[in-house]
Amino acid sequence: MTAPASSRSLNIGFLRRGYSSSGGVEVYLKGLAGGLRSEGHRVILFGTKEWPLEEWPGGEILRCEGRSLARYIREVEDHKRSFGIGLDLLLSVEKVPGCDLYRTDEGLHLAWLMARQQYVPVWTRWFQWLSPRHREKLRLERLLFQPHSTRRVISISNKITRDIVSLYGYPPSQISMIRNGVPHFGIPSSSERMTAREQLSIAQEERVVLFVGTGWQRKGLGFAIRAVEKLNSTRQPSGGSRKITLLVAGRGSVSRYNSPFVRFLGPVKQMAPVYAAADIFVTPTIFEPFSLAALEALSSGLPVITSSAAGISEIMTQDVHGEIIEEPSDIDSLAAALIKWLLITDDPARIAISRTACSELAAVFTLDQNLHQTLALINEVILEKESLKGA
């Protein structure tokens, strides 16, 4: 890893509310904090009560109640004033104005509301713009993307970069593209696939379409269910009457998505066996900056069926790494893409080529590369701040 520009030990703060043991943001922050600490720097997390102290590589957590973002921001300011030692750099994945670095893991709230409104009833569409919660988020987002408020922004997809520039006029020169990285899972062997299916009580002949994540409405779980139901209701050109199961890993309101063709696993800590058991991966999302789960699926050799609203589509090649549909709610197109790729999995030669291509694509996006690029940007920002102090 590249050492920060300053030779002295630095005090670097991280802003993150909440905690998920399987969250991609947490993996990213912990890896970055570990890298900085290995260089001799102090890393302090401004975290809420959910963060286990033993899970933070820096060993220091300044606790915030954080029931609302506004309250969390006030508590962060209070901690900073009482901290005693100045922070050299503040990095946030929360929409907190006044940070040195902001990373856009969630994308823009305004862009999400704009994308969502065509999929919800008229009254919901009307209410979302009047909701105090949404209005407060939008207010903070506007402040965040003022050039004088946030020194630099890390974007994780071209789509998010365009949104930041077009919706808020933030200077492109202050935006750095650093895509997500994941551990390399690798293509499972036949025996690994068989074992994984046995562990999950999945018949070897059963066709499995995998959906992973939380935020099920945003990620299009309802669309995926309708497409799988459509396939099961008609006799397929290959595979006879073999059942097609939609396997769902992640937390959500199961009662809203009941279907005889869906199996809910709940939150899963070890995802490698789940990817090994699946045939293809689906995420017909309405709005998704850059899906870690989809990247993990590619790493496991799974073709990905997604929408053009997904940041992951920017790195995929149609008909090589899967399928990109224009409209996630187009059930006919989604069902056609699913059956097309299920048929490809029946052809050993074709699916072997596809799995290799998928795994090789994901192998480019590593955690080490992500951390190296982020650390280099931290160096750059620290140099900018030190040069301004010396001017």
What attributes characterize this protein structure?
alpha/beta, 13 helices, Rossmann fold, disordered N terminus, 16% strand, 2 domains, seven-stranded parallel β-sheet
Report the principal-axis shape: globular
CATH superfamily of the largest domain: Glycogen Phosphorylase B
Structural class: alpha/beta
Number of strands: 13
The span between the termini is 29 Å
What's the CATH first level of the largest domain?
A: Alpha Beta
The neighbouring-strand order within the major sheet is 3-2-1-4-5-6-7
CATH architecture of the largest domain: 3-Layer(aba) Sandwich
Element pattern in H and E:
EHEEHEEHHHEHEHEHEEHEHEEHHH
The major sheet is characterized as: 7 strands, parallel
Average pLDDT metric: 90
Instruction: State the helix count.
Output: 13
User: How large is the radius of gyration?
Assistant: 22 Å
The level of helicity is: 40-55%
Strand content: 15-25%
Uncertain stretches:
1-5
Number of domains: 2
Report on the structure:
The protein is of the alpha/beta class and about 400 residues long. The protein folds into 2 domains: about 10-180 and about 365-390, Glycogen Phosphorylase B (Rossmann fold); about 190-365, Glycogen Phosphorylase B (Rossmann fold, 3-Layer(aba) Sandwich), CATH 3.40.50. It is about 40% helix and about 15% strand. It is built from 13 helices and 13 strands. The strands form 2 sheets. Strands 3-2-1-4-5-6-7 form a 7-stranded parallel β-sheet. Helix 1 (about 25-40) packs across helix 13 and helix 10 crosses helix 12. Residues about 1-5 have low confidence and may be disordered.
